[in-house]
């Protein structure tokens, strides 16, 4: 793991130095990334200009969910979002160049074309979360305060696992980045809204099959003092770290299985 982290930092650092050689371009692309993601929340605010609640949740509460989801996903996208390009490498055979290098392939793929401009999404999620915190009706306790950073770190870990598992699937499908995006970008969009607006079958799916609900829905219900979806017990609010570790372990196994099945392009 130490070797992989070292390789990741070296490759990411190279791309950061390349990016900062054109600082005006970096500032503009980062602001563009920030503005594009902010439009999502502007749409939610426009929705609340017509209604007082969405699924029984007020605007600050929805903003709380939005900020947690956006911040956790933004960090995962910044760190490991390049995994979605793996399908292209598998299809054209350029993954072979990574296999012959004396560094873990996962670290190389994750740091490939590291895009510092993705900080715009992280900042946007943090700003929305910061806006919501003084506006939500919460009786803050030490346990709830401790749960806040735990939610962000665990959510980032869960999304990282989804990125890696999606990349492993691309070893078989070769070019299934849009399928992967449905669970990564689509997943964070889903979590921006309260679970009460979705069918119970969907809520069960993102709780027991692909556990995205542990990113924000379940711990946020504890912080906000709302009933748990599906009548789950109260301790599930504190399960995100365990879920994140389990998801990362399964994603690691999927990655190793996918890498072993790789047979190049044959050309």
UniProtKB/TrEMBL annotation:
Protein's UniProt keywords contain Transmembrane helix: yes
UniProt keyword terms in alphabetical order: Membrane, Transmembrane, Transmembrane helix
Species of provenance: Streptomyces roseochromogenus subsp. oscitans DS 12.976
Transmembrane segments: 21-48, 63-81, 145-169, 232-253
Pfam family, one: ABC2_membrane_6
Protein name as it appears in the record: Transporter
């Amino acid at each position: 793991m130490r070797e992989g982290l070292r390789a990741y930092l070296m490759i990411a650092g190279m791309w950061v130095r390349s990016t900062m050689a054109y600082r005006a371009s970096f500032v503009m692309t980062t602001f563009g990334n920030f503005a594009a993601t902010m439009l999502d929340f502007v749409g939610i605010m426009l929705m609340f200009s017509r209604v007082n609640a969405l699924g029984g949740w007020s605007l600050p509460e929805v903003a709380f969910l939005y900020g947690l989801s956006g911040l956790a996903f933004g960090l995962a996208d910044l760190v490991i979002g390049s995994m979605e390009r793996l399908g292209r490498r598998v299809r054209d055979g350029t993954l072979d160049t990574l296999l012959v290098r004396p560094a873990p392939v996962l670290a190389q793929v994750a740091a490939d074309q590291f895009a510092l401009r993705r900080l715009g999404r992280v900042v946007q999620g943090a700003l929305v979360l910061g806006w919501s915190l003084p506006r939500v009706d919460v009786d803050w306790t030490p346990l709830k305060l401790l749960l806040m950073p735990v939610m962000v770190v665990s959510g980032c870990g869960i999304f990282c696992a989804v990125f890696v598992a999606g990349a492993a699937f691309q070893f078989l499908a070769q070019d299934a980045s849009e399928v992967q995006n449905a669970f990564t970008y689509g997943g964070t969009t889903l979590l921006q809204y309260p679970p009460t607006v979705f069918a119970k079958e969907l809520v069960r799916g993102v709780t027991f099959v692909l556990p995205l609900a542990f990113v924000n829905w379940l711990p946020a219900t504890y912080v906000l003092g709302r009933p748990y979806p599906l009548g789950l017990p109260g301790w599930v609010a504190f399960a995100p770290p365990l879920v994140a570790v389990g998801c990362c372990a399964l994603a690691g196994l999927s990655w190793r299985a996918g890498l072993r099945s790789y047979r190049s392009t044959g050309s």
